[in-house]
Amino acid sequence: MYLYHYGIKELPFTLTPNTSYFFGLPSHKEALAVLLTALKTGEGFIKVTGEVGTGKTLICRKLLNELPGDFVTAYIPNPFLSPAELRRAVANELNVALTDHSDQQEFTHRIQQRLIHIHQQNKGVVLIIDEAQALPLESIEALRLMTNLETESRKLLQVLLFGQPELDQKLALPELRQLKQRITFSYTLRLMDADQVFQYVRHRMAVAGYKGRELFNRKCCERLFKASKGTPRIVNVLCHKSLMLAYGEGKKEVTIQHVNLAIQDTEAALLPNSHMRLIVIIACIILLALAATFAYESWLL
Ligand SMILES: Nc1ncnc2c1ncn2[C@@H]1O[C@H](COP(=O)(O)OP(=O)(O)OP(=O)(O)O)[C@@H](O)[C@H]1O
Ligand SMILES: [Mg+2]
Predict the structure, then answer these.
(1) Residue 8 to residue 6: CA distance in whole angstroms
(2) Residue of 15, 27, 49, 233 with the most ligand 1 atoms within 8 Å of its CB, for mutation
(3) At what angle do helices 256-264 and 232-248 cross, to 10 degrees?
(4) 42-78 pLDDT, tens digit each
(5) 132-155 mean pLDDT
(6) Ligand 1 atom closest to Cα of 164?
(7) Domain containing 211 — which CATH number?
């Protein structure tokens, strides 16, 4: 691969949400600040939504690393689970011992006992659910019931939901209105702008160990921004391909042609293509001509 060519120690644009590559984009920093504040208030549900590939899983992992020691965490990365499976997953995460024969009531009882026990140690419990849009409706209800246990001053279990915009559609369903009302904090991740794409790309290159001249100049990053709409995952794919192309030509710098080729080779990336632009220009000319004719005829009358 191109590591030696660019003098880097690892691939800078892998798709794994690796926290050592975290770049403090304003939206991501805000999200983390909201989450930490919300968790300190000890209230029920907190929700973070964002389009596909905007960094939700990365923020989950960052939060898991950054939560102070007075929080016990349970992390469910893939919640396409029935209520029973969800309860078992939560129990597992909280080190609750269960036999295969434990019935649902016993499940709930044991989880509650464990929550009380943790609370007595002056700690809070946070259940973090990634991909929350995949939670079946019945499991969302099971989740709500799990959070019912509370002391006079705070909930024993706080739930943090990370999901794609489909999560909001789900929560808008009438049968979930009770849960929706309990969401005390929510945050929507924003996409990057062109300057942020530039900083983001530079940051990832630096973390990978790159020390040379700017590899992706402003023009390239502007193009990356347009094609990705500022979505980090798509930027990663395009940068990786651009680096491969430049490497293939033995070049030490990525050019706009490399970026363009990378875009053409990537389905998720879109540039307003020249056909579309031509159609829009012709439509504008026709409209202008019609308007001019109309104005001229009105003037003649
Ligand atoms: N602030 C950031 N700093 C560094 N890398 C980032 C940042 N935000 C996103 N990324 C990178 O973008 C890619 C996509 O991020 P992630 O997998 O967290 O997105 P997601 O929102 O969870 O996507 P999905 O909706 O498909 O689950 C990952 O490679 C991740 O490392
Ligand atoms: Mg994710």
Answers:
(1) 6
(2) 233
(3) 120
(4) 777 999 999 999 999 999 999 999 999 899 999 999 9
(5) 86
(6) 25
(7) 1.10.8
